[in-house]
Amino acid sequence: DIAVYGNKLYAVINCSHKVEIMDLQARRLGQVDIPNCRYLAFHGDKAYVSAYVGSLADPDLLGSVFEIDTATLQITREVKVGHQPDELCVVDDKLYVVNSGGYLTNRYDSTVSVIDLATFTEIKKLPVGLNPTRVRVDEQKHLWICCQGNYKDIQPQVVVHDL
Predict the structure, then answer these.
(1) For residues 38-71, b (16+ Cβ closer than 10 Å) or e, as one string?
(2) Which of 10, 44, 133, 149 could cross-link with 154 by S-S, CB 3.0 to 4.6 Å?
């Protein structure tokens, strides 16, 4: 994943366990080490990074979301979520993270973790379709979740939640 926030460019380098931070001319400012990092979201002076944490060798390990201070480029907090979290988005003061379970090929996850940003705790899980990987929010605060299914007999679908 890659995004510009403020005057910095953030790049999640999948399988490298690193988030690279650059200026807007792509000159390196630093890096943050996060195990098996995946996607980025931002709110206030924080960056949020989803991370599988585990690998194919340990697929039952829960994933996490890491909070990074955008001024110091230091990890400030971590919260455990579901298996193999992917995209995430912020709505008001909550972070929504899709849990794909992508390494659990016969038992994919089917939830969205809801994280309260003030306490940085998971406050609930929303049930969605099988193997959710993408999430967006629209102007009416509908959460749109793309679910991949199981690539065999359960078809992909889009699930919409009213927030």
Answers:
(1) bbbbbbeebbbbbbbbbeeeebebebbbbbbebe
(2) 149
pLDDT of residue 28: 97
Quick count: other Cβ atoms within 10 Å of Cβ 103?
A: 20
The end-to-end CA distance of the chain, in Å, is 25
Burial of 27: CB neighbours in 10 Å, binned 0-12, 13-18, 19+: exposed
Mean pLDDT in runs of 10 for the chain (163 residues)?
97 94 97 97 98 86 96 98 97 97 91 98 97 97 96 96 92
Please give the pLDDT value at position 51: 97
Q: Give the largest Cα separation in the chain, rounded.
A: 47
Rounded Cα distance, 45 and 62, in Å:
26
Nearest 5°: the CA angle 44, 50, 51 is: 145
Q: Pick from 79, 70, 113: which is nearest to 94 by CA? A: 113
